[in-house]
Each structure stands twice: as structure tokens, then as C-alpha cells.
Structure prediction request, 268 residues.
Amino acid sequence: MAATVAWISIAPVKGMRLEQLSQVELTRQGAVGDREFFLVDGKGSMISVTRLGPLVEIVADHDRDRGSLALRFPGDRVVSGPVETGPPEPVRFYGLAVEARPVRGDFSGAISDHCGTGLRLMERPDNRPAVDRGSIAGVTLLGAGSLGRLESAAGEAGEAGPIDPRRFRMNFGVDGIGPHEEDDWIDRSVALGEAEIRVHDRVGRCAATTRDPDRGEVDLKTLHHIRSYRDDVVSDEPLPFGVYASVARPGLVRLGDPVVPVDRDHRL
Prediction:
């Protein structure tokens, strides 16, 4: 069975509900439209769904061409308007000092009210993708076979049933490969539709994966189940599940596109 793209996801605002796409353009920075905004707390430090589950209840719609943003909250409340930003200011992004522009308007107040804590919406800097590792991880990828293996581990522990892949907030899912076969692509190039990516390493997992992707509530011992059979995998990041990559050749990727490792017979 040939490997193909099974799903495509982006998050216009880091930590908010994932948007499912039929196609996406990859640039050197990563997937267009992905994590173009992020949130900081009162101390100017980036906040994610790991700490604030209610973020995933917010659906963001960013129209890049019109320069507008709409946020839909539970109860069908919508806050929308043009993306207007203030002067750059220093913030902390995973311990890294960056300059980012605050987004003006009612967005920050509405998000703060929903989450019950003071938050500010920031536009990501042009030279920094709003992903954890920068452009070296502009793309993330998970095999459907790996998800199936995790479901088996969860079932053996008494938590039977399908596991929603959105818990892992990956850009691409891949059908047609075995459990954790994507690990074999580390240090290799992979053709992904019209684009080509370079896989660098495994993605270590945090408590964000324990949260329901629609409600944000902790409802699955995801980390426990990964640890039950992946704890001895050699990885720079603990509890690895899926891989991250940089974009070597930009291009369009569509659902159903072939996923083909390059240089199959040797690693570069």
C-alpha cells in the first residue's frame, strides 16, 4: 500500500482549535497559515493549550488576503475585525527572547474572558514561525499506523476506543505506513505532494495530548500509554510520537498526495 497524505491541519492561532484543510502550501517557514498568531500572559511569556485547555474551544478564521481575523467562541459569540498591530515589544517564546507585535482590537479581551486569565494576542514575527523549534520544525508528521499502535496500548490499559489525531496537533497524517515507520525517515528527505521535507527528529510529547481536542478537558492518559511501549526509544525529547521536519522544497500538498521517502537505500 502506497503512503499518502491522510489529513492536513493548521492552527491559525497557536493553541486554539485546529483547522482541517484539503490542501496547504509549504514554504521554507512551514505551512502557510499555521500559527500566525500566539498568546502571551501578563509577564509576556507564550501560553499554549498545555496550560489552558479552554483555548481549543476557540475557532480562529484568519483571512490573509483581506487581513482580517474572526474568533468564534462557545455559544456562537464571534469577535472579528481587521488585523491591526502595535509596535514590536519583547516577549518570551519557550525561553527565547523575540520581538512581536500585539494585535489591537477586542481579541485579547475576549480570549482573556473565556480563559479566565489575562492574555494578549500577538502576531508572530516574520523571521520566526510560531512553532516550538523554529523553521527546523516548520512541518510535523504522524503515521496513522502509529496512532493505531497507541490505541492498542490504551486498550490494553482499559481505555479502549479511537484516539483523535488532533490531540497531537500535527500538520500531516500519513496512511499506508507501519507503526512509527516515520521514525525511519529521520535524516532523510521525503517527497510530500509537490513539496519535499527533510525529517530531523522525533517530537516529544507533553500534557497537551491528554486534553480533548474540542473541549480542552483532560480525559486520556496519553503520556502513560506512550510511555508503556516507547519509553526505551532513544530520542532527544522524551515520549516521542511523530516527527518534525524542515521544508527543503516548497510546494503544494493535497489530501491523498503520495508520501515518498527519497534516498531509500541509504541515509545522507
User: Anything to note?
Assistant: Residues 264-268 have pLDDT under 50 and may be disordered.
